[in-house]
Amino acid sequence: MALRETLHDTDIDLFRQELVNLIDLRHELCVLAGKIDWKALERQFGGLYAAGVGRPGHPIRLMVGLQLLKYLRNISDEEVVATWTENPYWQYFCGEQYFCHDLPIDPSLMTGFRNRIGSEGCEFILGLTVQTGLATKTIAASSLAVVNVDTTVQDKAVAFPTDARLLNKARIALVKLTQQVGIKLRQPYTFIGQKAFVQSARYAHARQFNRAKAQTKKLRVILGRIIRDIQRKTEQLQLPVKAQARLGKLLEIAKRIHSQQRVRAEGDPPKIYSVHAPEVECIAKGKAHKQYEFGVKVGLVTTSKESFVLAAASLPGNPYDGHTLNQCLDQAKRTCGVAASQVFVDKGYKGHGCTTDACKVYISGAKRGITPALHKRLKRRSAIEPVIGHMKSDSRLARNFLKGANGDAVNALLCACAHNLRKILNKLRLFCAQMEIGLSDLLAMLRLQQARL
């Protein structure tokens, strides 16, 4: 697949309207488009495309621009593609010369591009937003060495995993897949299984827990029967390799759901909390309103002064916060090119193990050896909390819809990119407003001088 470049024709098409004649070039999105190093993106991602194979790929600037706009507005792939055809500023930001009335891409290509660049490519985009912040003076170069670090939970788009729901979802997934591959089950238990699941929820709501347990046990028996029936049928049939791999993977998940108990014994494999997302983990952060969260832990690194995000590392396995500090700081160094000299963390990072002389870690609540300047920065550590809140409310960190562990890493990094771009846009918007006020004052002064003359 060859790569199409973003080129502007020197010859003007008289029958098409140029975007520069439709929009205000002082708009913050237009100014931002001129500050981002799009050539660096093309050099970075151009090697992912092979020349002379298949249909030419879409321009890198278009694909990256759509990803950034998606997370800036917290909308889906379908919505960002549909809105792109209506908004001339979005088209200019993505490198178009003329106003386009057609969809730029099929929405499914957004997923393909994210999978193509992976977490490494998204990390490069995050580094590019940091460079853009330096170019627009949104952040100072001296701020990159003084950072705040904290962790949060990136929730996955899964329902609350009760035993009855997991057993019923596994049954539904197995029946659906067997129908696709051509295996005829002895009995799919469609009506009986759904009725048992509904009755289990109703009994639990009425606090009739013995009856609810009986319905859950019925669902477990039904799932075991379907698993054994599929195993017997697959031994007799010769399925294609892909179908056999899909069925084997789903059977493994269903077996673990069927055998796992409420309390996990020592030596048991990790519990599964979702059929379609088996990588989901149960994380307790000590919140009073939400005891457990189901997703993956994410470590964030922000500048202490401007709260500009330098790293957003996905941390599977629910590690202890202190053991994640080196990984987060390494990612921050890759994105901004500067190693942190002062790191401010909360008390959850005790025993972090980061004892290098070049990097000093200060834990909140420390008293010994704390100067007035360090005390101010320790108080400033809590500024990372509203950053997490904004990334969850304004971006898509609160509910991740991307698939797999790679989707967890990609979603966190793109949320960080969107947060940085919002800060840059606010800076550019304020600058443009000041320029307009300055020009209006200048024109008023000139009119007053002319009137006096």
Textual characterization of the structure:
The chain has 453 residues and is of the alpha/beta class. Helix content is 52%, strand content 9%. It has 14 helices and six strands. It has helices at residues 28-35, 38-45, 60-73, 77-84, 88-93, 108-135, 163-181, 190-205, 209-236, 241-259, 325-336, 372-380, 384-393, 404-452, and strands at 146-155, 281-283, 293-303, 309-315, 342-345, 360-363. Strands 1, 2, 3, 4, 5 and 6 form a six-stranded mixed beta sheet that branches. A hairpin with a 5-residue loop joins strand 3 and strand 4. Helix 3 crosses helix 4 (77-84), helix 7 (163-181) runs antiparallel to helix 8 and helix 9 packs antiparallel against helix 10. The termini are far apart. The mean pLDDT is 89.
Question: What is the percentage of strand-forming residues?
Answer: 5-15%
Shape label: globular
Specify the number of helices.
Answer: 14
Radius of gyration: 27 Å
Low-pLDDT segments: none
Q: Could you state the order of secondary-structure elements as H and E?
A: HHHHHHEHHHHEEEHEEHHH
**What is the mean pLDDT?**
89
First-to-last CA distance: 68 Å
Helix proportion range: 40-55%
Would you report the number of β strands?
A: 6
Main sheet properties: 6 strands, mixed
Which structural class is indicated by helix and strand composition? Answer: alpha/beta
